[in-house]
Amino acid sequence: MLEELEMQGNFLFRNRGSLPLLLLPAGLGIFIYQEYFGIVKIPLAVDNIYPYICLFISLAGFAIRVYTVGFTPKNTSGRNTITGQLADQLNTTGIYSIVRHPLYMGNFLMWLGIAMLAENAWFILIFILAFWIYYERIMFAEEQYLRRKFKEVFTDWAEKTPAFIPSLKNYRPSLLSFSIKKVLKKEKNGLFAVFILFFVFQYTEDILQTGSFAVVFDFWLYTFFLSGIFYLVFKILKRYTVLLDEADR
């Protein structure tokens, strides 16, 4: 069972971006179905602010990712989907002193906020269960790799640091300063993805309610374009310049 779980975890680790791609179209489909047939989804009292509640949850998850990535050294906490597991050193300070998998905690909140846009309790529950099963195996495989590489250093840290729900009692400040350059290099994709998906849900609702597509200069359109510009600018800077390069980060 241990070998099988690790094998599954390594496979899912290499393809860990696929879960949202599988679940979120289903969420949009459920949302369209409910909207088309006029199924009551959430109380009218919170209908206007509900998307902003979802956005707050998603941005809270994004903020956790930004905080985590900004304090980590090179070749840790990365998107190592091609090479597999990679860790030149073990992160045990900063946010890693209160939770072992802060990036996955951030991912959970980011995608939970988007899953909530479906406004269907059963779909949200399925998302949570799928995330649990999916990422539990990834975390298991990741920890097996770290256990073999760092041995007692890992086990000592893991014994006092919870896997997913933070505990502040053992907090230790990060040994590194915050790197905004690393954040701009690594996290621009996530921010753009969040605002694209919110834009799609909100404009899908408008089309279903009005029967036609009309460009409305509202919050969702502005954030969609601004995050898109932000993404393109820093994508170009990363690819064609060294402005975002930083030694050992």
Q: What does the secondary structure layout of this molecule look like, with pairings?
A:
Blueprint: H1 2-14, H2 18-36, H3 50-70, H4 102-115, H5 121-150, H6 152-160, H7 180-186, H8 188-210, H9 219-240
Helix pairs in contact: 1-5, 2-5, 2-8, 3-4, 3-7, 3-8, 4-5, 5-6, 8-9
How far do the termini sit from each other?
37 Å
Number of helical runs? 9
* Strand fraction: under 5%
Q: Give the CATH architecture.
A: Up-down Bundle
Main β-sheet: number of strands, strand sense, barrel status?
A: none
Shape: globular
What are the segments in which pLDDT stays under 50 over at least 5 consecutive residues? none
What is the SS-derived class?
mainly alpha
Integer tally of domains? 1
**CATH topology description:** Four Helix Bundle (Hemerythrin (Met), subunit A)
Whole-angstrom Rg: 20 Å
Number of strands: 0
Mean pLDDT score, rounded?
88
Q: SSE order, as H and E?
A: HHHHHHHHH
- CATH class group: Mainly Alpha
Q: What level of helicity do the residues show?
A: 55-70%
Keywords:
249 residues; mainly alpha; Four Helix Bundle (Hemerythrin (Met), subunit A); 63% helix
Describe this structure in words.
The protein contains nine helices and no strands. With 249 residues, the protein is mostly helical. The protein is 63% helix and 0% strand. The protein has helices at residues 2-14, 18-36, 50-70, 102-115, 121-150, 152-160, 180-186, 188-210, 219-240. The relative contact order is 0.15. The protein has a single domain (2-177), classed as Up-down Bundle (Four Helix Bundle (Hemerythrin (Met), subunit A)), CATH 1.20.120. It is globular, with a radius of gyration of 20 Å. α3 runs antiparallel to α8 (188-210), α5 packs antiparallel against α6 (152-160) and α8 packs antiparallel against α9 (219-240).
